[in-house]
Amino acid sequence: MTVFLFRAQSHDDPDEYQLALTQQGYDVRFIPVLEFAHESIAHLADLMSKAPQHSSLLITSQRAVESLAAAKRQAATTIHPQWHDLNLYIVGSKTAQQLSDLSFFSRQPVVASRATELAPLILADRPESLLFLAGDKRRDVLPDTMAEANIPVLEIQAYKTCMHPQLEERLNALTYTKDDWFVLFSPSGVDYIQQLGKHPMLSSCKLAAIGPTTSDHLQQMGLTVHAVAEKPRASYIADAITAHDQQQS
């Protein structure tokens, strides 16, 4: 039985999803769906060379951390020292770890697994203002919540999401059976499959989603989702898939 992961394989050896699923006896194949392009690097580097105008930094994805790292390299020795002391609000433990790996900020971040969970934590702190490094497909939860609380937010689009150039070719070459699994990792990934007219194939296999947002998006398309990870981690998606198959056997 094969699990098709609609994501790029990580540079880790082995990839954590591959490891978790092969330990459960599944074959694993990767189908990269998304590609990311950094944006506003020069603008962000220019901001970093001056005293920050915002008391806190809001980051909701690893891609935004990558853009921040690129701006940090570009700004180099011109970075204003007050940037090291910003308060940090982060969505996702992996995003927080990647930010920590920069060895740049002095404060411990406030971290939550989802934007809806982070919002009340930010409101409890009542920061003076936020600099939000966002992607082009960011959700409205955090900006809208901050606006309702009259907390100023400066939003910079730090990256954009694109369709992987080989996605259509790989989908056309895909062979699978009804017993195999398709695992989707984001609404935008689902949308790109739909744009290519390939979404009917998603009803030909068992479907799994990395979390409730992606699951809801699939269900809104009329698709049945057979497994949803309790948390967006490899072990949880492997457990959800295994639990479903064991129930059906």
From TrEMBL:
InterPro entries: 4pyrrol_syn_uPrphyn_synt_sf, 4pyrrol_synth_uPrphyn_synth, UROS/Hem4. Residues 15-235 form the Tetrapyrrole biosynthesis uroporphyrinogen III synthase domain. GO terms for molecular function: uroporphyrinogen-III synthase activity. One of its GO terms (cellular component) is cytosol. Gene3D superfamilies: 3.40.50.10090. One of its GO terms (biological process) is uroporphyrinogen III biosynthetic process. This is Uroporphyrinogen-iii synthase. The lineage of its organism: Eukaryota, Fungi, Fungi incertae sedis, Mucoromycota, Mucoromycotina.
